[in-house]
Amino acid sequence: MQELKDRIVKEGKVLPGNIIKVDGFLNHRIDTELMDHIAEEFGKHFNMDEVTMILTAEASGIALSAIVAHHFHKPMIFAKKAKSDNIEGGLYQSDIFSYTYKKKVTLLVSKEWLSADDKVLIIDDFMANGEAMRGLCDIVNAAGATLVGIGCAVEKGFQGGGDRLRAAGVNLKSLAIIESAEPGNIVFRGED
Amino acid sequence: MQELKDRIVKEGKVLPGNIIKVDGFLNHRIDTELMDHIAEEFGKHFNMDEVTMILTAEASGIALSAIVAHHFHKPMIFAKKAKSDNIEGGLYQSDIFSYTYKKKVTLLVSKEWLSADDKVLIIDDFMANGEAMRGLCDIVNAAGATLVGIGCAVEKGFQGGGDRLRAAGVNLKSLAIIESAEPGNIVFRGED
């Protein structure tokens, strides 16, 4: 998606440790018009008529997911993150490793709101190692629901998380896949 | 807002400890159409033309805020929550007490994205003790920005947070103020 790539090049900051900061429009300050354009783009890649639920993980994926869900008149769920102890019942859960916080966190979704009848599109703002996405896929499976696909705004292709999901047969669409990032030189993967 | 009150009565669950669960439409599973109706309602109470930024705190306020911000073609910021140690520079911060997690958390907003020119509408899904709102007001003040008001979907009136903000002169509009809640009997404050 050219508009998104242009914004990453123009406003993104490359920090040491392969960190790409896009917090001026994607995951701290949110450009809601851009989120709506991203929603439209996802609409070209996924059959939104069959989707019954948008699923994401807190916190930074929620804004994009809410606008995507609203755009296509769908409900959404955000998985909550919790420490692994003291989890109450009635929840689907999946343990993931958070590279941001360097610890294990548990993704939680109430069994009340996700069922075997659901056709789920997972949406997230950013994918690196793909741990959050793997955890959300686990939860979709645990519910017996159908995974329609994963729509991701920005994927760090060089960290491999997206390619592992593709190899596992997941219909993953990332709108900007960054292959390498140095200050002043961000290289994107070619369109598929 | 009658539609919201009806949903609370119909779908809300009152749990011991004055907990009112509305996670089927407001803060876990999100009814995005209802969020848009809430946005319209806020538009009747605040002069959206003057608002330049929607501000909320992660995580459960993000979905509503994103849809409100998009509805009125505004950008939004969500304050991040962090432990108080190890905070990097360039941030507005405010310490609040989280009754949910029973510990102090710090709300953080990058100085890069909020300035003295901003006219800020704070949006949140739920207010009880009002600690998160107080922290967000601190951050607006620290930025030298103007607080237009606070729009809250559900306020637990009996916990006093909202009334403290009103007494301090804040233009706070809550669309459903719960005065008392027992299973099968939720009482709302009359409209102002």
From TrEMBL, chains A, B:
Xanthine binds at N27, K156. 5-phospho-alpha-D-ribose 1-diphosphate binds at A128, N129, G130, E131, A132. Pathway: Purine metabolism; XMP biosynthesis via salvage pathway; XMP from xanthine: step 1/1. Residues 37-157 form the Phosphoribosyltransferase domain. PANTHER family: HYPOXANTHINE/GUANINE PHOSPHORIBOSYLTRANSFERASE, XANTHINE PHOSPHORIBOSYLTRANSFERASE. Homodimer. Belongs to the purine/pyrimidine phosphoribosyltransferase family. Xpt subfamily. This is Xanthine phosphoribosyltransferase. It comes from Dysosmobacter welbionis. The lineage of its organism: Bacteria, Bacillati, Bacillota, Clostridia, Eubacteriales.
